Amino acid sequence: MAEPQKDSPEQAEFRQYCRQWLADNRPPDPVVRLPLSALEIMTEGQLCYLQAWQKAAYDAGLVGCDYPREVGGGGRRDCQRVANEEMLAARTPFFPNVIGLGMAAPTVFYHGSDELKRQLLPRLFSGEDIWCQGFSEPGAGSDLASVQTFARREGDKWVINGHKVWTSLAHFAEWMILLLRTDKSHKYDGLSYFVVPIRAALGKGVTVRPLIKITGETGFNEVIFDNLEVEDRYRLDELGKGWQVAMTTLLHERGAGELQTPRAGGLKSEGSHTTNTGNLFELLRTSKRDGQPAAADPLLRDRIMQQLIREHGLAQNQRRARVPALLDHPMRLLLQNKLLASEISQDTAALALEVAGARASLYLGDDNAPARGQWPLAYMNSYGMTIAAGTSEIQRNILGERVLGLAKSK
Fold this sequence. Notes:
By secondary structure, this protein is an alpha+beta fold. The protein contains eleven helices and ten strands.
């Protein structure tokens, strides 16, 4: 497939460098089963393997390419896209610091002090410091502006009390991006935004408790703050500007921000799995329906073809989103792609369970499970992705109101 846009001389030279480095430095196969994504990392073994890969890629200049050198970046222009494309083609492992790279880094870069940028971003890019996101609460999810975690000022410090939930990677995180309330009399203007060193405060104002999902994994957590003291220098932007800072985070989380997020490809090896439709073909060949190969069922073949068409359409929209002249609205394609990608992945996993039939009830660790039980795991995990960064319903509301100009929903 042709490149979506012609590389500049710098990009062409960098692409060749990335391609050669990836060919010479492919990481060894993991000795542990890798999860489907960084959000499901459970063990130190998984984390160490993926951290080593991110550190190697960063040291080689493939992570943080478009950030300035003075904050630990590569000082290039629109080259993260090139690195992402080459890593995807090489099917490298994913990076573990997904929240740090996709959400914390752009937020700190746009709203943090120069001191914080120099302190935090290099170790974020390298993966040495894992980050998590403190947004959702038991009583504030889709209505994010209703968060009640509160910070009371005492001199040059803030004392934080509250409860965050669905906090991916908090069990490994050194740092958290934290939206909280500093004024109870205003809903939006009463919010402020901090970066918090939670690992150093474990047992001293911070408690992290794992939440066991239906998959049996513990990537999610709840985090409780009990009189945690944080210095004012860890506040991002002005007091009461937390909602505006949070919008920077959410735009980048949804793929609509200005800075490219470093992304690696999916490692295809023993114990790992990617949930695109192409991986259904082997399942189709080895499954039976009414005593016949599932591949002989014309209805199944048609549905798989429809999924392939959806995936191809998504890929073409992702290409269009990188060409400014094709953007009728700066947010439309990017927000649309987040919505569609999560739903296509869910539908593909659901179709895989239908193809497998009764064997879809076999799970991880069962030698008779198709694809070692990865498809039912992918299906159960897919619901998290249709909720994360705003539910599919929220995404449709945003597209309707901000892109199509429809009236706000009640």
